[in-house]
């Protein structure tokens, strides 16, 4: 569009009017999160995230959250979404289902789609592993900035709130709800897993993805595999992944996550060995067995961005290194 001088002047003249109008629209931002708590056992509900990337349309609500009722009243949350607004809505749903206040919010790991909702709670009731707190201190504000850029008004009022309580691995009881806490890692440096005793459910956080490709921005694949082996050995009935539907078998999501990580690592190593560039590696064929896995191409391309330079450095040592002066 080419603006005539007259039209430009007209726009400038309108600006003082247009600005308050824009602000007024922001005040009445009508985005609403929808919550559909699915009962998955005695006093436990899964609130599903969208199996999508973070985009404005979903308000960043892409991670699963879990609500558990305390026998003595009140609720426990495992993860609380991407924003103040999401977490306030989740808390209202939980308090209605559990006939009492949210007593404790467990944070599975640092990523903003799980963690930034903690802004809605008194930090004293928000609990995480020490490693998660350290990672949030390092990365939290950067994540929040990125989320504001994508999600704008969905994020209003959301600030990084550091957890005020530390999770110690072992048995935990909250108003009669008995949990086992495990300190694992691999998806991030601190991956909290809870096992709910009453329902035999593993709350795996992002150590397990199900029919949704694993995200790897902070991954250590060797540690992740070890953690999956630990989860597979637990006596349990079912598993809630960080993303994707409930796994009623308790084993399929673990196996699929492991399969994806093994394929990914092997495929990227092979791509480097073949001299493919990053764009070519991101276009590699994805095996048919992952046909039902959502966001497979998207996460492959993100994983190329996370890992490729490191694999190249490892497999293709500098030819001027070790020659005595190592300059340049
Ligand atoms: Zn994550």
UniProtKB/TrEMBL annotation:
Q: What are the record keywords, sorted?
A: Signal
Q: Where is the Metallo-beta-lactamase domain?
A: 62-243
Q: Which domain of life is it from?
A: Bacteria
> Has keyword rRNA-binding?
no
Residues of the signal sequence?
1-26
Instruction: Identify the CDD domains for this entry.
Output: metallo-hydrolase-like_MBL-fold (cd16282)
Q: Which InterPro entries match?
A: Metallo-B-lactamas (IPR001279), NDM-1-like (IPR050855), RibonucZ/Hydroxyglut_hydro (IPR036866), SoxH-rel_PQQ_1 (IPR030811)
Does Signal show up as a keyword for this record? yes
Tell me which family the UniProt entry assigns to this protein: Belongs to the metallo-beta-lactamase superfamily. Class-B beta-lactamase family.
What NCBIfam families would the database entry show?
SoxH_rel_PQQ_1
List the protein's name. Quinoprotein relay system zinc metallohydrolase 1
């Amino acid at each position: 569009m080419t603006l005539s001088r007259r039209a430009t002047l007209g726009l400038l003249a309108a600006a003082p009017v247009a600005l308050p109008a824009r602000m007024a629209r922001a005040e009445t931002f009508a985005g609403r999160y929808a919550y559909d708590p699915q009962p998955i056992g005695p006093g436990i509900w899964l609130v599903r995230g969208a199996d999508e990337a973070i985009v404005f349309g979903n308000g960043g609500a892409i991670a699963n959250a879990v609500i558990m009722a305390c026998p003595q009243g009140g609720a426990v949350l495992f993860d609380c979404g991407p924003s103040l607004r999401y977490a306030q809505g989740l808390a209202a749903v939980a308090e209605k289902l559990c006939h009492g206040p949210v007593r404790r919010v467990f944070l599975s790991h640092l990523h903003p789609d799980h963690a930034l909702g903690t802004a809605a709670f008194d930090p004293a009731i928000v609990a995480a592993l020490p490693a998660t707190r350290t990672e949030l201190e390092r990365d939290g504000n950067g994540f929040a900035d990125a989320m504001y850029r994508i999600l704008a008004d969905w994020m209003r009022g959301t600030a990084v709130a550091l957890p005020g309580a530390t999770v110690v691995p072992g048995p935990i009881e909250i108003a009669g709800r008995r949990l086992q806490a495990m300190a694992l890692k691999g998806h991030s440096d601190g991956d909290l897993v809870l096992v709910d005793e009453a329902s035999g459910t593993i709350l795996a956080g992002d150590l397990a993805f199900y029919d949704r490709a694993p995200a790897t921005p902070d991954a250590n694949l060797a540690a992740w595999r070890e953690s999956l082996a630990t989860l597979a050995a637990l006596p349990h009935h079912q598993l809630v992944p960080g993303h994707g539907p409930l796994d009623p078998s308790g084993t399929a999501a673990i196996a699929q996550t492991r399969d994806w990580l093994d394929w990914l690592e092997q495929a990227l190593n092979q791509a480097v060995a073949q001299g493919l560039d990053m764009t070519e590696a991101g276009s590699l064929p994805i095996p048919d067995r992952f046909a039902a896995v959502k966001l497979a191409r998207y996460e492959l391309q993100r994983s190329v961005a996370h890992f490729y330079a490191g694999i190249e450095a490892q497999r293709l040592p500098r030819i001027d290194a070790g020659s005595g002066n190592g300059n340049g």
